[in-house]
Design goal:
Elements: H1 3-13, H2 18-38, H3 42-51, H4 60-70, H5 76-79, H6 82-96, H7 103-110, H8 121-132, H9 141-150, H10 152-169, H11 176-188, H12 191-205
Helix pairs in contact: 1-3, 2-3, 2-8, 3-7, 3-8, 4-6, 6-7, 7-8, 8-9, 8-10, 9-10, 10-11
The structure holds 2'-deoxyguanosine-5'-diphosphate and fe (iii) ion (2 copies).
One fe (iii) ion binds near residues 27, 52, 53 and 130.
Length: about 210
């Protein structure tokens, strides 16, 4: 590990709970693998993966005070959901407390929860590594992991669709970026093929 990663790992350990810490190490490793596979900057992928959830354990008032102090023009519609706050405040902490100025790392962390249409490769890698890292356990995770190595857009679309499905099933508020990313994929990618292949394989995976 580089000195920088060692130092950030120590800071992260003191900022989040044990489970989140393990998840973050998993995302760091998975993001590195995907960066290698798809030709992105491995060091940036590792740092973004390691630190993407650094503010996950803050309270809502703590998030809101960071946003008021450092980024008062955020969309009020995004600030409405507690789920979304850590993706707004993590880049603030990265920039102001850890001195990370790299715009690619900061924007990957900023977009890791809702995504947005037209993500960069590094943004896609972090979004996908977040739900495919080795500690994640849910039906079909193996399929998504394999898809992530084959075609990052296929994995991203299928993961986004799965996440959106869960939010809809729970009757949660959907932020516009999440919807817009879904529609962007429907309009610009071969999503019907992604779904057909996914359904074909998962059917065969069920005993
Ligand atoms: O922080 P993680 O648990 O590793 O994962 P995450 O940052 O991708 O997601 C955090 C939560 O945010 C997860 O339960 C899904 C949820 N989420 C994603 N998009 C939306 C959302 N929640 C709401 N209410 N609306 C969204 O558009
Ligand atoms: Fe997160
Ligand atoms: Fe995460």
């Amino acid at each position: 590990m580089t000195d920088e990663i060692t130092q950030f790992t120590e800071i992260l350990k003191n900022s989040v709970d044990e489970k989140r810490f393990r998840h973050s190490l998993g995302v760091m490793n998975e993001a590195e693998t995907l960066a290698e596979r798809h030709g992105a900057d491995k060091n940036k992928a590792k740092i973004a993966g390691l630190l993407h959830d650094i503010t996950k354990n803050l309270s809502v008032p703590e998030h809101l005070s960071l946003i008021r102090a450092h980024s008062p023009n955020e969309d009020p519609e995004e600030v409405k959901s507690p789920n979304l706050l850590h993706a707004i405040t993590a880049p603030i902490v990265l920039r102001n407390k850890l001195g990370i100025k790299d715009p690619e790392i900061l924007s990957a962390v900023r977009r890791h929860t809702t995504a947005k249409p037209g993500l960069t490769l590094l943004e896609k890698i972090l979004f996908v590594a977040d739900f495919t890292e080795p500690n994640r356990q849910y039906a079909d995770v193996e399929y998504y992991r394999k898809a992530a190595r084959e075609d990052i857009d296929k994995a991203l679309f299928l993961g986004l669709r799965w996440g959106l499905g869960n939010l809809l099933a729970r009757g949660e508020y959907i932020y516009k970026n999440t919807w817009e990313t879904y529609n962007y994929y429907i309009l610009n990618f071969h999503t019907a093929d992604y779904i057909a292949e996914f359904q074909g394989k998962t059917e065969r995976m069920i005993p």
